[in-house]
Amino acid sequence: MSQRYAGAQSQGFKNYIENVAIVGAAGRIGKHFVAELLKTGKHKVTAVTREDSTSPMPEGVEVMRVDYSDPSTLAKAMKGQDVLIITMGVTSPSDQHAKLVEAAAEARVPWVFPNEYGIDCENEELGRDTIIGSGNAKNREEIEKLGVSSWIGFACSFWYEFSLGGHSCRYGFDFKEKSMVCIDDGNTPINTTTWPQCGRAMAKLLSLKVLPENEQDKSPCLDMFRNKFVYISSFCLSQKQMMQSVLRVTGDNPEDWKITYENHKERYNAGMKEMQQGDMNGFAKLLYTRLFYPDGSGNYEKTKGTQNELLGLPKEDLDEYTKVAIRMAENNEVPS
């Protein structure tokens, strides 16, 4: 597609994002998208939710209730929207994403963020090894095939607070047992992002103008990311660096912790076997382990860079979010 310019568009074209519909507005990452979008004062946010949902919504969010068995309710919810953000849990019905994308196309929504907020699925080998790549690719292909909306992939790697404070199958930490499993020597760095940084990134991205004004305009715009990924990050850390933060926050000494080591391939294979036997923590184990492979797949900052500077994202305090992770672990706020 040749470059389009705002100055050449027909009368009535608006070169900004105003109306944003979000599925999963009260979810783990969705609520951070909503909070930051509302802060800008530039966006009207609509939560698309099931008819029977009882999830509370923040003040200032319009609620559109839909019946996924009735496409007309979905199309009505999408009418007039500039962007559809889809965030759904792993237990959502398998056809729900396609229904939303089809409704967005029917309502001629220009932009869709498909349901992938994590690893770099542009890396096909990584996507294949983590099992999620083909499904995510299918979601993007469905958007393109309909020929109406453009997609933007949101690569933020694993969520730091959730992953550090969760089960040891994630970043290897068990705060109640004071134990840690290092993958290989624990020194492989990966990108990781906090929930608030994800929210800020979405709000900054949707506050960009849509198109450059003319051929001379080289300033950032949303069109730069049409059918591409945006890469953001809070930190690029190894497990050992995470442990150093934990020690600073807790005042513990290294000898207070039981630290063990596992080969990356053996841990990945163990996770695969556990998953095949019905233990979904095995899936998390293989998923997280794959990013700590020594091939650098988890460090997209090094291979592709990030859009942190372009979006004006702040540098964050690692120890502040380590405290959040520990609180979450102690209060059982992260499902095992």
Notes on the structure:
There is one protein chain. The protein has 336 residues and is of the alpha/beta class. The protein is 37% helix and 17% strand. It contains 13 helices and 14 strands. It has helices spanning 30-40, 71-78, 96-106, 124-129, 133-146, 160-164, 195-205, 239-250, 264-276, 280-291, 300-303, 308-311, 318-330, and strands at residues 19-23, 44-50, 61-66, 83-86, 111-113, 117-118, 150-155, 158-159, 173-174, 179-183, 190-193, 228-231, 235-237, 258-262. Strands 1, 2, 3, 4, 5, 6, 7 and 12 form an eight-stranded parallel β-sheet that branches. A three-stranded mixed β-sheet has the order 8-11-13. Strand 4 (83-86), helix 3 and strand 5 (111-113) form a beta-alpha-beta unit. The radius of gyration is 21 Å and the shape is globular. The N and C termini lie far apart (45 Å). The mean pLDDT is 95.
Largest sheet: 8 strands, parallel
Instruction: Spell out the helices and strands N to C.
Output: EHEEHEHEEHHEEHEEEHEEHEHHHHH
Average per-residue pLDDT, rounded, comes to 95
Tell me the Rg in angstroms. 21 Å
Query: What structural class do helix, strand and pairing data support?
Result: alpha/beta
Helical segment count: 13
Beta-strand content estimate: 15-25%
Q: Please provide the count of β strands.
A: 14
From the N-terminal CA to the C-terminal CA, the straight-line distance is 45 Å
Q: Which percent bin holds the helix content? A: 25-40%
